[in-house]
Design brief:
The protein is α/β, with parallel strands linked by helices and 345 residues long. The chain contains 12 helices and 14 strands.
Length: 345
């Protein structure tokens, strides 16, 4: 079981949107005064991870409001287009929001819009999809080297450090995608007998991953391992099953479809694995950081959010009954964020 960060730490996005929140104790300047409007500039909302990110942000806002703060989220969706995201950031700036949380679709193209916001007195925090090259943005990211080490170490431990692998990458050209890929490559350097025999981009989309893996499967030798970036495991497995082949060892994401497939494979054949992923719950951390910053707390320009692991036993117990449309994510409350992210040493 993962360490409990709040009284009720992990939830499912579908359940949260129906509306129950858990009260948490708040301390410090957060209890102060006026309404806070936070712009949330999302890249797209077409996958479970992004739905979880938004649900986590909404949960954090609800927790703060339940304790006397007045926090409102203004959410925009760029539908995968960086130019649209630039316009949306500029529009949020013109609307006079107090803070902008940005999942950047480019590490460079958004710099001018970020300048516009910061020059207007609006802090911008970049998160989840990677950093930007503009040093004026507060940066809240995952430790991708930690992710790569956890991920590859689990695979190597299960395979004896040997095997043929497919590597399913994420969204081409994205900074976070490249950072995850670099972390995998670095961790894999210790295991030269794990061979990448094919590589495709799955676009962080289950259907795309299934189609692209299906297209290359007939050309491949035996495959023992699948590497992916969280939103591809179900699609990759379906490609193998449709071809009449056993599902290789892979690490699963936090989506309900991943969890339920893992449980099904385990029940049928004893197949075992875990879920390790960047956590959509970073949306709650981002909102807490925004409120801390606006409440006068000194917020670092660089911060790190955790990489959790969910075991098969967790899926059988804590997350039993997840719908395919749900996604598991961590509830990081305000006090935890201050202690472990904002004031982390």
């Amino acid at each position: 079981m993962i360490q409990d960060y709040t009284k009720s730490r992990i939830t499912m996005a579908g359940s949260l949107l129906l509306g129950v929140v858990t009260a948490v104790a708040l301390t410090g300047p957060v209890m102060a005064k006026d309404k806070i409007t936070i712009g949330v500039a999302m890249p797209f909302q077409g996958n479970g991870w992004q739905k979880g990110f938004l649900a986590a942000a909404q949960w954090a806002a609800g927790e703060l409001n339940a304790k006397g703060k007045d926090v409102e989220l203004t959410v925009v969706d760029a539908a995968g287009d960086a130019q649209t995201q630039i316009q949306q950031i500029n529009n949020l700036t013109l609307q006079g929001v107090d803070f902008i949380i940005l999942e950047p679709l480019s590490d460079t193209a958004l710099n001018g819009a970020i300048d516009n916001a910061v020059n207007a007195g609006i802090p911008v925090l970049t998160t989840a999809l990677g950093s930007v090259t503009n040093p004026k943005a507060i940066d809240l990211q995952f430790d991708y080297e930690e992710l790569g080490e956890k991920y590859v170490s689990y695979i190597a431990g299960r395979t004896g450090g040997k095997g043929n692998a497919i590597n399913i990458r994420g969204l081409a050209g994205n900074a976070a995608e490249q950072a995850i890929q670099d972390a995998y490559v670095k961790a894999l350097a210790k295991y030269p007998d794990i061979k990448i025999v094919a590589e495709v981009y799955g676009d962080w989309n289950q259907s795309v991953a299934q189609q692209r893996v299906s297209a290359i499967l007939p050309t491949l030798p035996d495959v023992n391992v699948i590497f992916s970036q969280g939103v591809a495991a179900f699609g990759a497995a379906q490609a193998f099953l449709s071809a009449g082949r056993d599902v290789p060892l892979q690490i699963y994401g936090f989506d309900g479809v991943d969890a339920n497939l893992l449980l099904e494979l385990n029940a049928k054949s004893g197949y075992e694995s875990v879920a390790i992923n960047t956590d959509p719950g970073i949306g709650s951390v981002a909102v807490n950081v925004a409120v801390a910053k606006l409440s006068g707390i000194d917020v670092p320009m660089k911060m790190i959010s955790p990489i959790p692991t969910i075991t098969l036993e967790d899926f059988k117990t804590t997350y039993k009954g997840m719908a395919d449309s749900d996604i598991a994510w961590v509830k990081y409350d305000y006090d935890w964020t201050l202690a472990n992210v904002v004031h982390a040493k």
